Input
Amino acid sequence: MTRRRLPIWLGALALLALSVASGAARAEAPLRIASDQWCPFVCASDGGPPSGYLVELSAQALGLASLRVEPLLLPLNRAMLEAGNGALAAVYAPPRDRRLLRSVSLGQSQACFYTLPASRWRYTGIAALGRIGFGVIDEYGYDDGPMDAYLQGQHGVHSGVEFNKGEQAGLANVRKLLSGRYPAALEHAAVMQELLRQHGWQGQLRLAGCLEHGLALTLGFAADNPATPAWLASFNAGVLTMRRSGALAALQRRYAIAPLGGR
Output
């Protein structure tokens, strides 16, 4: 028995259908966005997907353009590297970096210095840092200004600045301060309050002064991804819609996030 062949036009139609289905599947793939745990902005959820202010905001704003988000927890330096090579669509709350195109401001975070209660040192400006060692988180942005520039200059030199890395870098920074590894630590106030609350450390640290400028929170999209202009435009438009509807203000109130600040 000879096998009957499909008409050429019918085979072409089948190939077209497969191509359309494949393209639809690619279009529906979620945008992978990552950063390390930085609660209340990016929070671990007992083995589940991350939550937090930036995670919820990103999902809602992009969802208005029918784009889905897959939030991930990764060390910040690894997240920025993977965004640069195309493995991630974006990074939550990145510092300035040529590999990323940053969104409109999503709120503001204030970074402050903390010490043990017995300390009398107080941050009064960059000049005060020459007299004290302190811990920070590697590659974090703190003010998009003098402090970030100062920290950039401390890499690779013998100084009193210790750079913490990894998914739990913020927690490590606080633990080292509590154990006396260094006399001060720099952290964003909302993040520090959440760490102290989660671990029952309230009252064990002293606020020793805050930076002169706050840091505007953004989403950083992979600059070399050809889809980024459309994603970034959709995200910014979604944020504007949320701002006009009151949804953004409601989310900021729920997470106690300052609404102002440009980046």
Observations:
- The two ends are 73 Å apart (CA to CA).
- DSSP finds eight helices and 14 strands in the chain.
- Confidence is low (pLDDT under 50) at residues 9-26.
